[in-house]
């Protein structure tokens, strides 16, 4: 397995530990993470969104994602970008998240 694939898997694993404080499901299963890229030199790019543009804890969530990724062995730079294109919808959630939140 190449170094960047292994690092990408570690990043995705740590993203499962970040929760929106208003929703009891992690941001990965909520479908808030649109893209995870890791390069061989340790640069990590995460493009993500929030459930609503006016999310009052946006800064805290982005900071937690950045801190957790930065703490991973092999990461030299964590670039976490916020986007609202495309807008998040409930359809982006994993089946597990939908079940947890009573949407199934």
UniProtKB/TrEMBL annotation:
Coiled coil stretches, renumbered: none
One of the Pfam families matching this protein, by short name: FeS_assembly_P
Domain of life according to the entry: Bacteria
Domain MIP18 family-like: 10-80
InterPro entries per record: Fe-S_Maturation_MIP18 (IPR052339), FSCA_dom_sf (IPR034904), MIP18-like (IPR002744)
Protein name: FeS assembly SUF system protein
């Amino acid at each position: 397995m190449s170094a960047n694939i292994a690092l990408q898997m570690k990043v995705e694993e740590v993203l499962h530990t970040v929760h929106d404080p208003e929703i009891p499901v992690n941001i990965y299963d909520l479908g808030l993470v649109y893209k995870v890229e890791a390069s061989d030199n340790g640069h990590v790019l995460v493009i993500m969104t929030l459930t609503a543009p006016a999310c009052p804890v946006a800064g805290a969530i982005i900071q937690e994602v950045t801190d957790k990724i930065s703490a991973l062995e092999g990461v030299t730079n964590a670039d976490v970008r916020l986007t609202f294109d495309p807008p998040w919808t409930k359809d982006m959630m994993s089946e597990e998240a939908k079940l947890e939140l009573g949407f199934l």
